[in-house]
Design a protein that fits this description.
HATPase_dom; 12 strands; 14 helices; Beta-Lactamase; five-stranded mixed β-sheet; HAMP_dom; alpha+beta; EC 2.7.13.3; five-stranded antiparallel β-sheet
């Protein structure tokens, strides 16, 4: 999952989960709080029953009372209810007191209120000073029945509903807020930890990679499996590492090639210079006294100077090719006609040197390539000269084969010589390589020919390679010109 998507979901969950849990907890918490509030209210009401509540309790079901005797039985039940609350009971039936358990204090309180109120008034609730009086009056069979409850030591407990509700709500909200903070902290902590792990692992991997590169180690691997934005970053980082490694390897190889180039130049120039120096000293010292010997010395000096000139020219050409500054002159030519012309040229040039040439073309008559004819001539001629030079048979054979593939043309130059050791094939196109590690045969060439050939072919967008097949075969692959490009 993408980190952007993961962060979005995480942020949403950080809001949704706490809200849902808070609502659930608030709902659950409301139950015990409500019960606690109701319990407190009931307890206070039990200790200080409201006068109106007492009045409601003094209303018997008249269906169960048929005569005066039924009302006489009522006080026992009511007194059990009223006594814990400090009330005493008086029941009158048609102006006659049929039941009473009032105390002297109750009587004094009634006297202060007025006895007429007991018999003449209707139902009432009266709280005066320390007296609470509750009266229910009703008729039964045209008889007036009064049920009176009096408490002459009444000390009301004031129940402030607003204050109690406020205290309840504040306590409830406070606990919900505390629990909400805990829930939010836990939720955010859990989700943040998961996101942190998803971020810290690739960051530590990238930090490790940067540390390894800083220390010069380019052989590690960036293995990151998660499918998120960091996968692309780690992939790009690993690709950068590989390119940097290739660059460093190429630089090391380039430095090694430079060293070999310097060694090769030093050796290949020293040999003719030593010879020139020796022959010049011979002339100076008068060793060559006869005109014939002097002419021989001078011819040798000239030959060695020409060899040096050829070597310097090749070095100059190789240097320009290697730096990519050589000015090629490309032409679109018919490859079959070009190779047939080259075949005729080398056949005439090497006539009488025990070399037989063969040419075979399976290429279309209209197949065209884009090449620098002069430089490609240099490549092919160098290959042929090497085949002639290193041929160990009495009668050499050089076969030139031309054929085409879907988008390329292939030129193969094969000889029937002894070939090249398999471990040396990969070094054929390395500068100054001659298959002669001691370099004791300078007459066999400078070792730059095939290196130059490789640079020229690659500058044409082609490829050159070698392999053994009853001798050595050099294979050159060049891109064809498409039909649209040839128009």
């Amino acid at each position: 999952m993408r980190i952007k998507k993961r962060l979005t979901i995480s942020n949403i969950l950080m809001i949704v989960i706490p809200v849902v849990i808070i609502f659930i907890i608030a709902g659950i918490m409301s139950i015990p709080f409500s019960k606690a509030f109701e319990s407190k209210f009931a307890s206070d009401r039990e200790r200080d029953s409201n006068a109106y509540f007492i009045q409601q309790s003094l209303r018997p079901d008249l269906k169960n009372f048929n005569n005066k005797d039924d009302f006489v039985k009522l006080p026992t039940e009511l007194q059990e209810f009223l006594k814990p609350k400090g009330y005493h009971l008086i029941i009158t039936y048609d102006g006659e007191i049929i039941s009473s358990n009032v105390t002297d204090e109750d009587k004094k309180a009634i006297a202060n209120i007025g006895e007429d109120m007991l018999f003449k008034s209707n139902s009432l609730v009266l709280e005066m000073n320390s007296t609470s009086l509750v009266k229910n009056s009703f008729r039964k069979d045209s008889k007036v029945v009064n049920i009176i409850a009096i408490n002459s030591n009444y000390q009301p407990i004031r129940f402030d509903m607003k204050h109690e509700m406020s205290t309840f709500v504040v306590s409830y909200i406070f606990i919900v807020i505390i629990i909400s903070l805990i829930v939010v902290t836990l939720t955010n902590g859990i989700l943040s930890t998961k996101i942190y792990k998803k971020l810290i692992v690739p960051l530590e991997l990238l930090s490790y990679g940067a540390e390894q590169i800083k220390n010069g180690n380019l052989d590690f691997e960036m293995n990151y499996e998660s499918d998120d934005e960091f996968k692309q970053v780690c992939g790009d980082f690993d690709e950068m590492r590989l390119r940097l490694k290739d660059s460093v390897d190429a630089q090391l190889k380039y430095e090694e090639d430079r060293k070999q180039l310097v060694v090769g130049i030093s050796h290949d120039l020293r040999t003719p210079l030593t010879a020139i120096k020796g022959y010049v000293e011979g002339l100076i010292d008068g060793i060559a006294k006869t005109p014939e010997k002097q002419k021989k010395y001078l011819n040798t000096i000239y030959t060695k100077a020409c060899d040096m000139d050829i070597l310097v020219d090749r070095l100059f050409l190789f240097s320009k090719l290697d730096t990519g500054s050589f000015p090629f002159k490309f032409d679109k030519i018919n490859i079959k006609e070009y190779m047939k012309s080259f075949y005729n040229h080398v056949k005439d040039e090497f006539y009488g040197k025990d070399i037989e040439f063969f040419f075979n073309s399976k290429c279309d008559d209209l197949c065209r390539v884009k090449i620098d004819c002069q430089e490609m001539n240099r490549v092919l001629l160098n290959i042929v000269e090497n085949s002639v030079k290193y041929n160990g048979n009495c009668m050499g054979e050089i076969k030139i084969r031309l054929f085409e593939k879907e988008d390329s043309v292939v030129v193969e130059v094969s000889d029937n010589g002894k070939g090249v050791e398999e471990e040396e094939i990969s070094n054929l196109f390395v500068s100054f390589y001659r298959g002669d590690s001691s370099r004791t045969k300078p007459s066999e060439g400078s070792g730059l020919g095939l290196a130059i050939a490789k640079n020229i072919v690659e500058a044409h967008g082609g490829k050159i390679e070698a392999y053994n097949m009853d001798g050595l075969t050099i294979k050159i692959t060049l891109p064809k010109i498409s039909d649209k490009e040839s128009i």
